[in-house]
Specification:
Structural class: alpha/beta
Strand content: 15-25%
Distance between the termini: 36 Å
CATH architecture of the largest domain: 3-Layer(aba) Sandwich
Helix content: 25-40%
Order of helices and strands: EEEEHEEEHEHEEEHHEHEHHEHHEHEE
CATH topology of the largest domain: Rossmann fold
Bound molecules: pyridoxal-5'-phosphate
Strand order of the largest sheet: 4-5-15-12-13-14
Number of domains: 2
Radius of gyration: 20 Å
Length: about 400
Amino acid sequence: MTKFDLLCIQCGRSHPALTARCEAGCASLLRTRYKEKSFRPTETASFFRFLDWLPCESGIETGVGPVVFRSESLDRWLGLDSLYCAFNGYWPERGAWNPTGTFKDLEALPTLLGLRDRGKGRIILASAGNTARAFAHAARVLDFTVYIVVPESMLYRLWLPSNGPSGGTVRIAGVRGSSDYSQAIRLSDELARRYDLDSEGGAKNVARREGMGTVMLEAARILGRLPDHYFQAVGSGTGGIAAYEAALRLLGDDRFAGQPIPRLHLSQNAPFLPIYQAWRGETWTPGPEDDLFASVLANRNPPYAIRGGVGDALKASDGTVSSVQSDAAIAAGRELSRREGIDLEPAAAVALASLRQAVASGQVRRDELILLNLTGGGLDRIRRDFDCRTLEPDLWIDESSLDSFEAVL
Ligand SMILES: *Cc1c(COP(=O)(O)O)cnc(C)c1O
């Protein structure tokens, strides 16, 4: 047996290897169960220090991983005593080396390594930007083949440092005339079917959640306890589920047993609020997403109601969801940049603004231990430090012919 199995949250069936769906057909998430129950981070200088609790057999040498630090200047700005930031991006002075600047780098490596453990070397995904960059880079590092489907209007976000690793194969399919991420998902599903490719899988991708969950693990390593509150901006909410699941795993270790589960404080960028409105029991009418400040958060089909999904994680952690206006997020991002000298990805600025709102409304107390997940940052810095090139599509498919296209990968 390998070091883990996957349990279906609904029927309890055990699955011996990485897979996205329950064999019995349950529409619920699968959750890892590791043989190693105690929390034993190693000396490794990356998130592979948590390899015991990652669903791949081995790690690689890399600088990827969350960096948890205290910011006195943010403490002062927000009027807090115990705020810890988890920075997931590129910020050399703080020791943050995520090559594509977001916590999607935490997702890509374990996903590809987990596939490799099962003898696979190819994957396909649809992405509006950050996920695509992370998988393209990881494919180059691990000699993988990755197919990425991107709406035409989002292609400009697909760049990589030109002097980075050069192994593997990255193939881009552009959906011509499209600005709609859900069309890219449709095309990706169709190509996966035709060419028998593994799909990245989104929230159902266990390796993705475990990679993102290392933010909570790193905080526990630094703090020696669980935080009282966890703040993150969400589109799919997968990172929130991941933080909750990582906390559950930590509670299985004697040193953390009995501590309260950190309250999830998830945030979305108004007016694109499907998770916020689902949480409030309102129906959400999709509007245009073109000019959203944190456009990476514009996910129309978050795994909210599914068993083990965002709704369950919110309930179990006594969590909340907040709505953040773009101007508040922009102001928060500027404030951090002025105080700390690094740029924030817009989604991370939304999370920071939501923390400010929570302090103002008394949702958090000054002396409570707060973990703020800054999910992306240093993108401007990457483009300053490296010569970055935009990736060109190898293949174009018209949005109008998605039902009947002939594609050759
Ligand atoms: C993807 C992403 C998010 C949202 O992640 P979830 O999947 O909703 O947890 C937040 N911030 C950044 C920078 C992202 O790339």
